[in-house]
Fold:
Amino acid sequence: MSSDDRLNELRGQVDVINMQLLDLLNQRARVVSEIGKIQAATGGGFYDPAREAQMLQALEMANNGPFSNDAIKSIYKEIFRASMALEENQAKAKLKVQRRSEVERTVITMPDGVTTLGSGDFKIIAGPCAIESFEQMDETAAALAQRGVKFLRGMAYKPRTSPYEFQGLGEEGLKIARNVADKYGQFIVSEIMDKSQLQMMYDYVDVFWVGARNMQNAYLLKALGQQNKPVILKHSFGATMEEFLYAAEYIVASGNPNVMLIERGIRTFEKWTRASLDIGAVAALKLETHLPIIIDISHSAGRRDIAIPMAKAAKAVGVEGMMVEVHPNPPVAMSDSKQQLYIDQFHALMDALGQ
Ligand code: PEP
Ligand code: MN
Structure:
């Protein structure tokens, strides 16, 4: 037999073994997938380091070469990694917030029956960081009304880094916001900090929002899932997109399908902006979920001089809208004074967006 023939014969054997291995690998994957289902049902994690170490040890003991133990271990580690990814994907595919088809989308319809979030047009949620006075809310809301903005934001509870700074007007602030919103036919969007505030706030607000610092407060999320007003959930600056979706799942799984996500940037080493807005991750998030997504251009930037390009980027990536802070006199604002837009800047922004 020529060496060419011999080479071809050996390659033929390798091809057959490849197919057998492929078959065995997929056979193994099917078993792992069954294990994953049991683990998901019992709430256990998929990664079990003790079990992995035990399997590697058994393989090392049984290994007669010619592969070294190190080579065998690295091959099997790759198999373990792929198996775990399979289990995780299976579990994730069961999330209610997960998009199952390209056309699936959640549209939130407000009680007026005509105002929607998530129906394809770019919606604006604007207003000051915190509710400070009737005059401040009224002047802002009037400017929003001129541009047809229906969602007025404002925080009544504003815990600050220091407990000695302005903490928000509380229920008094919500009364102001309600009066102003009713005057201009707007909806109030306000942050809820704790489950205990739910009953009282329910009478004043139209949309609850959960702040970045509270994204993983599971008890708050569950409570919001058990009431019927829409909820907007902000992305924690220290959480992955996957964790963000799991947090949204708490609300939807508790019974409230009207959830919207707000990307507000994450913490990175960058200092020129307050947070880093990862536009690529937002594009990926859109593929993963049917929930409407909006971008908060104020907290991600932390500055007002780049509001227009930030808003254009938000619009270009195809999200359902943006949140922006607007204040009649930002330098004297009680919080976030560097990022709130002056009213004329808000108009310039709307012009730039063609809104
Ligand atoms: C806010 O919207 O004013 C706010 C405090 O945002 P975040 O929770 O995203 O920091
Ligand atoms: Mn703010």
Remarks:
- The longest helix spans residues 3-41.
